Amino acid sequence: MKKSLLLAGLFMAGAFSVQAQTRYVDDVFTDADIVVQSDIVYGVNFSAYVPQSLGGPQVIPLYLDVYMPDPSVDTEQDRPVVMYYHTGSFLPKGLVSPMGARTDSAAVEICKRLAKKGYVAVSATYRLGWQPDNTSNLDLRRGSNLLAVYNAVQDAKNSVRYMRASALQGDPFQIDTEMIMLLGQGSGGYITFAYATLDNYAEVAAPAKFQYQDTIGIFGGKVNIGDPYVDTAVVGDWNGFGGAATITGTNPNGLPTIDFNDPGRNIENIAGVPDNVNLVINLGGALGDENWLEPGEIPMLSVHCVNDFYAPYDSGMVRVPVNGQFWDVVPVAGSFRAIKMANENFNNYVFQRESFSGSVEWQISRSHAANPGGYSGIYPIGIEPADPNLPFAVNANPWDFWDPSDPLGANETNPNNKAQSLAYIDTVMNFIIPGMKAVMDANDISIAEPVTVDFEMYPNPTNGDFRVKSDNVIEEIRILDIAGRVIELQNPDEDDFRISTEGWNPGVYIIQVKSGSLTGTSRLTVY
């Protein structure tokens, strides 16, 4: 990363003095300083869900809006990017909800707030549509929903590549291509979780829950029981490559037309540009399968309503409302389960090692009753259903607000109180910004050191003493609990050292060994 997160002095006109604020943490710009570039086409791809009234399935454009400090008032040339993906149940805005577009009120509010802190915030659309069938056809509900998430991840990766490519073509947004973070709300949370974890075909093809139960495909074709819903020969891989459609020309709008007699339905966009990111954040949503999450993946931050009926907070079933009834879609890992795993796999170590002593929200998050274990990266919101007999009528998206004259608002459990929604957005920002800064600091000073100290630790697991032994002189042993709190610090200055676990609670601990400039980390289980 090219920038420093030192205090930025804002020099104001006239006789005003310098006001020291922390860029990327505090508001260093005003609303008047923010510019928005709207309706930028970042790619095109095939959508199977364009209604017949609009021409039926076809290739559609994909748009994004960029919020950033005006370059005339901001001299920073390398600004971190936050990509924002909106809510809406993967269905078009106005179909079942007043939300579901990159211009939703919460999307605009959050992007503007990020821009005022100095970020470049990008609100991007993605392909929408699936078949929330209200019959017993599980394949339609589950398979088309999985494909909706899959296509959206492809589009999200395309949008990240677009932003990186822009830096190679004049850098109009003045971005740091090495610091890109994702923020997904509602259905966007499914996207960011999958973006961070879905990295091989077996993850979507092997689980039985992602395979056909019948012999009729979700688009009407013949399939075999056990075939995966995702066929990369048709839709491409999780990065958006392969399954290439045969282009036959262009339509009057200049968009590609494809040959429907050939199997491919994917348009490949911006090949050769990386789509890796540094952090993913979700406000609601879930992880499609807990086996997607593995050691070595990027850090995650989550904000989630504990009583969310539609996307489980811990683990459970995704549900959708269709014609006044509720239908199960697929079992998933909720935000708490995902963050717990991210901690246990040390993917969230950048947060686990921090005390965040100055953040009330981080202290609340680690001590909340819905976060047993005090895991780093999950902020539970404990809104109760207004009526315990109606558990589905819970405000699980309290940051949303919309035009009160929209008749679809009658279906929402959110009270549509703008002041209340803005207060929840305050809480969200106060939680995620320290985490984002921790990730940026880590990239600046290379905190994530390679494991270069060879050491043994035994017995492991243990219910008593254990030894740490190395060929190097061990100068420091730091012991952290799974929440990232330092519980013991030793300075042995020898190569073989014994430590007692007396008084430790059963669980997993992080053992960090330091010798000179070299550091190694391992896990110890105490039972």
From TrEMBL:
Asked whether the UniProt record includes Cell inner membrane among its keywords, one would answer no
The stretch of residues making up the signal peptide is 1-20
State the InterPro entries in the record: AB_hydrolase_fold (IPR029058), BD-FAE-like_dom (IPR049492), Secre_tail (IPR026444)
**Keywords on record:** Signal
Q: What is this protein called?
A: T9SS type A sorting domain-containing protein
Domain BD-FAE-like residue range list? 64-204
Species the sequence originates in: Phaeocystidibacter luteus
- Positions of the Secretion system C-terminal sorting domain: 457-524
